[in-house]
Amino acid sequence: MFLPIILILLSCHSCKGLLHPVNSGNIGVDDLYQMIQQQNKTIQQLLERDTKTVGFFARLTQRTPHLGVGQPIKFDTVITNEGNGYDPKQSRFIAPFTGLYQLSASVMSPTNAYVHCAIVKNGADVSPLYGATTDYDSDTQTIVLDLQAGDMVWVKHTGTTNEIIHNYNSYFSGFLIKQRL
Ligand SMILES: *[C@@H]1O[C@H](CO)[C@@H](O)[C@H](O)[C@H]1NC(C)=O
């Protein structure tokens, strides 16, 4: 007794959707499940994205009489380290998340000595810093970088071994502007 209804449904072109509501383009249940899982993952990531805070600020307070060539400048006194991006042992910022960051560094040379440094990303120079021999000269560079999680940024001495960095007024700071998925 249901046969006529089935036959009507099968012969009715616009009723095909009723029998195979999701079968346009061969999408199966497994595919749909995968899609839902993927969407769910994206939703979870989006919900978490704007909850991340990364910000650090460290000062140099110890006199470094002879800087080695390529030596990282040790900003030994950590004042802010939200998100633990700054590693005081290595004196490096290690991006905890992929995103856009602002970083800033200042170096001061003492009187009668100059100092050449650079902000480096994974070892490559990004922005030079130079303190001249005029009394307590200082230089500050503020940069914006796209970093992948795990990328490292630090301040490296790029001059000769005769150079000295003053033990005050040298800083390294940065913060996450916007995380990217
Ligand atoms: C979506 O992801 C959350 C967190 O992982 C989980 O608790 C939830 O059960 C998931 N929902 C579906 C429909 O898979």
Automatic annotation (TrEMBL):
<dbReference type="InterPro" id="IPR050822">
    <property type="entry name" value="Cerebellin_Synaptic_Org"/>
</dbReference>
<dbReference type="Pfam" id="PF00386">
    <property type="entry name" value="C1q"/>
</dbReference>
<feature type="domain" description="C1q">
    <location>
        <begin position="49"/>
        <end position="181"/>
    </location>
</feature>
<keyword id="KW-0732">Signal</keyword>
<protein>
    <recommendedName>
        <fullName>C1q domain-containing protein</fullName>
    </recommendedName>
</protein>
<dbReference type="InterPro" id="IPR008983">
    <property type="entry name" value="Tumour_necrosis_fac-like_dom"/>
</dbReference>
<dbReference type="InterPro" id="IPR001073">
    <property type="entry name" value="C1q_dom"/>
</dbReference>
<feature type="signal peptide">
    <location>
        <begin position="1"/>
        <end position="17"/>
    </location>
</feature>
<dbReference type="GO" id="GO:0005576">
    <property type="term" value="C:extracellular region"/>
</dbReference>
<keyword id="KW-0964">Secreted</keyword>
